[in-house]
Design brief:
alpha+beta; six-stranded antiparallel β-sheet; about 15% helix; globular
């Protein structure tokens, strides 16, 4: 498993887990769920913003922007 932020552009992966404690930070966890980032979802890293500010991921035909610091908290495994 690797953090989502470490994927290469164009890579597809499956969300495995989150490094967020629901009890400590329920708002962040709920925001991920509302965006459709749930365990078992296949995603694709679509774009990197210049200077490492953010990434864009494709999840269920939707393009979602995410800060790199948040992407470090999403663990994925590369899809075949």
């Amino acid at each position: 498993m690797i953090p989502l932020a470490k994927l290469k552009k164009g890579s597809r992966a499956v969300i495995v887990n989150f490094l967020v404690d629901k009890a400590v930070n329920p708002g962040f966890y709920n925001r991920l769920m509302q965006m459709g980032l749930v365990e078992g979802t296949i995603i694709e890293l679509a774009h990197f913003a210049p200077f490492g500010g953010a990434i864009a991921i494709r999840c269920r035909d939707t393009l979602i922007g995410m800060r790199l610091s948040d992407a470090e908290l999403v663990l994925v495994k590369e899809a075949e």
